[in-house]
Write a structure and sequence with these properties.
mainly alpha; 74% helix; three-stranded antiparallel β-sheet; Multidrug-efflux Transporter Regulator, Chain: A, Domain 2
Length: 125
């Protein structure tokens, strides 16, 4: 018994993506649905890949990084993919921590400038 397949519209709905996004993911070869005439059918493999794509995007990975990472599984298997994932995650964690540091500094500076301006307003009354 084969696994149920999702239509193009069902796939968009399930993952809350636009048709344009789904078509683009196919165009850049992140997804390869079965084609039946003009219809596209997405099986368990494509659904699993979509979960990974969206998770990768949420963590800030580029689509090209995600595509290469998915390709590692296809060519070299799970172990190589997990090794690549650890390297990618380490790099992304470093980048996110640097962004957090910069954001904290910006918030602190903005808060100080806001407080200085508020104090000046109170003295001018």
């Amino acid at each position: 018994m084969s696994e149920p397949k999702l239509s193009f519209k069902e796939m968009c709905s399930k993952f809350e993506v636009t048709p344009r996004t789904l078509r683009y993911y196919e165009y850049i070869e992140l997804l390869s649905p079965e084609k039946d005439g003009r219809s596209r059918l997405y099986g368990p493999r494509e659904v699993a890949r979509m979960v990974l794509i969206l998770r990768g995007r949420r963590f800030g990975f580029s689509l090209e990084e995600i595509r290469q990472w998915l390709e590692i599984y296809e060519q070299e298997g799970t172990k190589a993919q997990l090794e690549a994932w650890v390297e990618m995650a380490d790099r992304q964690l470093d980048a996110l921590q640097e962004q957090r540091k910069q954001l904290d500094e910006s918030i602190s500076e903005l808060q100080k400038l806001r407080n200085d301006a508020d104090d000046e307003l109170k003295h001018k009354k």
